């Protein structure tokens, strides 16, 4: 009776940038081969599933965003399960497995997943499979792949348990599942021995004796010429191993070229996160000297006449395009240079074998090819193994094919990490290195993720300068390296730098220039409010700001706001304010000092009570070397910081772009608390945790 039964499980994903969704799709796709049916939904689609009545096992894939928050798509769900009125047995009927995604560069690693996991446990739900926590810092696949491999057996056991509960004969269900077409993950992969390869390539018209010779030659060349492996060369034992490579994902996208004309979609239609605003860039100021190691720019946007609103501490997102010449090069490699302006229609292939295949949300149904490559696909993304696997099929040279197989194989995992992931290799780098690889357009659409808008912290106050929004960023630079002969700039910061170059008149490099901007450049933005990183509601409360480098950005907004409040409310009491800033060189990259004297003004008018600055690369003749980093300076003010935090109910804000800085600062605060309270380190850590929970120790860090 139950032999033709395809067991259903509920698969929920909560994604911010598409990774959790891609992993859920992978699970969904593999499920069929295990005789299972994944009922997959975005966790936000709460009308499509009901955990309160769910009987089947539930699999949740959830990422983390911001400072340890669940993705925006999970907010409603999390709010719902966090209802304190729910009884402890609310989900006692539920069996679930959870895969959390995160990045250990950030403080609250995988906190999105951990939050949901913890709450489901509190509400009585049972794990049928151990929670997986995958770290983007070392490669999600390190945890994701084995977690998915083990999921099938765990699900099988969960079904047995479920059927026992329901009184169904457990051997019935066991046999139903073991009768599934491909019972184990090992058989789900193609075990490619050189013998199989030979046969496969023979099918493609290559004579087996030629091929064998060619493979041998490749290995000889690789092992004698290059003792060291590289992106394109492997060495023994990998070069001589039989390989386990992933199953070829079924293609599911169809692209039709149309010779009709029309209009490209509006950029706002690419964004699901909220309303977009097209606003002029009215000023651009270089905040660093020409000889600084990094170039920091401040841009001013004219938001007057829009309903765009923000508070100091909020961020917003910039919709950015890919680099024009990279798009041109890609078109050329694809053999589509003359078709860039053609409209294309993107559809899900009829009858595709891909389970759960849907039209990717970030792909317009109709646009020009150039629009698609410029605005929709992250062409700089590091290709996933599934993409490499698909590229194997589009590669004609046997040596290149073998190397691509190696890079996506189990045996080649460390080569993948070293030469692809850690080297930040992108599709173009690969296509240059493997010139016989000629992928089709549909493959790019299937495998390249959505081009994400980039977030920036607002560096101004709407109260201080209504209708104007400032933000500050470093132009990200990637120097040339062996896998990438050309230097590159960050997608968004490189584009912005080019866009505002005409505004960067070195003779008018001050923000108080009265000259009217002649720029007509506009950029599209949308808001990304921060729920917690705001000024204390009570202005009499003191606060400490730690923001080295561009981390100072939101604090300029804080101080502008505070200055205006002081001007408008002379009868209010205002708490003291501390700013710890650090940079490399006093005369090269001391933001808001050289070019724009705002910090000095804040100090002079009393808005900023204490400014403490350090320079990490300046040489000194002093007998005692001055502190180099903000965390070192903080330690010098241990008593004051302990007073602000412990006695005066003050706030502590950290903003910046480095994990090491944020960790270094929190270590320093732990030491300060431990020293000033004469408590041991563990006790001090607990106090810091309490401060975090009370939202009085707040971080806004990015990498
Ligand atoms: P991308 O092209 O996205 O490259 C950036 C990252 O990609 C690198 O750091 C690296 O990890 C990787 N990468 C890509 N290619 C390579 C390669 N070839 N070699 C090595 N690594 C590579 N930034 C600011 O400057 N100011 C801010 O105020 C600010 N606020 C932020 C607020 C929030 C809430 C968040 C999440 C981020 C914030 N950021 C800020 C960071 C900002 O969003 C961008 O990440 C940053 O500007 C880089 O964007 P990009 O497109 O120029 O670089």
UniProtKB/TrEMBL annotation:
Keywords: Amino-acid biosynthesis, Cytoplasm, FAD, Flavoprotein, FMN, Methionine biosynthesis, NADP, Oxidoreductase, Phosphoprotein, S-adenosyl-L-methionine
Protein name: Methionine synthase reductase
InterPro entries per record: CysJ-like_FAD-binding, FAD-bd_FR_type, Flavdoxin-like, Flavodoxin/NO_synth, Flavoprot_Pyr_Nucl_cyt_Rdtase, Flavoprotein-like_sf, FNR_nucleotide-bd, NADPH_Cyt_P450_Rdtase_alpha
CDD domains: methionine_synthase_red (cd06203)
Coiled coil: none
Listed GO biological process terms: cobalamin metabolic process; folic acid metabolic process; homocysteine metabolic process; methionine biosynthetic process
GO molecular function: [methionine synthase] reductase (NADPH) activity; flavin adenine dinucleotide binding; FMN binding
UniProt domain Flavodoxin-like: residue ranges: 9-152
Pfam families reported in the protein's UniProt record: FAD_binding_1, Flavodoxin_1, NAD_binding_1
PANTHER family: METHIONINE SYNTHASE REDUCTASE (PTHR19384:SF84), NITRIC OXIDE SYNTHASE-RELATED (PTHR19384)
